[in-house]
Amino acid sequence: MEPAELDALTDYLAALDHPMSSVVRHLREAILSVDPQIRENIKWNAPNFTLRDDFATFNLWRPDNVQVVLHTGARPKPDHREITVNDPHKVLRMVGRNRGVITLSSRAAAEAAMADFTDVVRQWVAQLE
Questions:
Q1: Which residues partner with 47 through β-bridges?
Q2: pLDDT (tens place) for every residue of the chain, 129 residues total
Q3: DSSP per residue over 23-74, as a string?
Q4: Range of the domain at 55
Q5: Which residues lie across from 8 on neighbouring strands?
Q6: 20, 66 Cβ separation under 8 angstroms
Q7: How does 52-67 read in b/e, with b if 16+ C-beta sit within 10 Å?
Q8: CA–CA separation, 77 and 91 (whole Å)
Q9: CATH number, domain at 115?
Q10: Cα 77-128-61 angle, rounded to 5 deg
């Protein structure tokens, strides 16, 4: 990561004024733990994660929850194959063939779902082209 990007991320996280900012930081660490090549930036005024293309973006518009949108790039790609994950606890809600949303409504919910969250992200990343 370039120093300017790192500074922007550090500043963004330090200034994040969201009731669940501690959850955002915890989920961010979980995403980064999945693969050492994952990079992050700020996109649409939220943390965004990338490998060869963007694959996860936070949605922080609602004060009562944190959403992580899993996708296959900045633009929907209907020709990409379907992403499937083994998700026995249903933390992921699929909203398209290759787009899913994880919504967590409290710190307790995030902590309870952390292993499942990390596993879903790991499976998602493994299927990226």
A1: 42
A2: 555 555 677 788 888 889 999 999 999 999 999 999 999 999 888 999 999 889 999 999 999 999 999 999 866 666 777 899 999 999 999 998 899 999 999 989 999 999 999 999 999 999 986
A3: HHHHHHHHHHHT-TT-EEEEETTEEEEESSSEEEEEE---TT-EEEEE-SSS
A4: 3-126
A5: none
A6: yes
A7: eebbbbbebeeeebbb
A8: 23
A9: 3.90.1150
A10: 65
Question: Could you tell me how many residues make up the chain?
Answer: 129
Checking DSSP bridges between strand 39-43 and strand 93-96, what pairing results, if any?
unpaired
Q: How far is CA 6 from CA 10, 23, 42, 88, 101, in A?
A: 6, 20, 10, 35, 26
With both helix axes pointing from N to C terminus, report the angle between 107-126 and 21-33 in degrees, rounded to the nearest 10.
Answer: 30
**What is the pTM (predicted TM-score) of this model?**
0.89
**Is there a contact between 96 and 85 (Cβ–Cβ < 8 Å)?**
no
Cβ of 4: how many Cβ atoms within 10 Å? 8
- Tracing tokens 């699929």 back to the chain, one arrives at 94
Total structural domains in the chain? 1
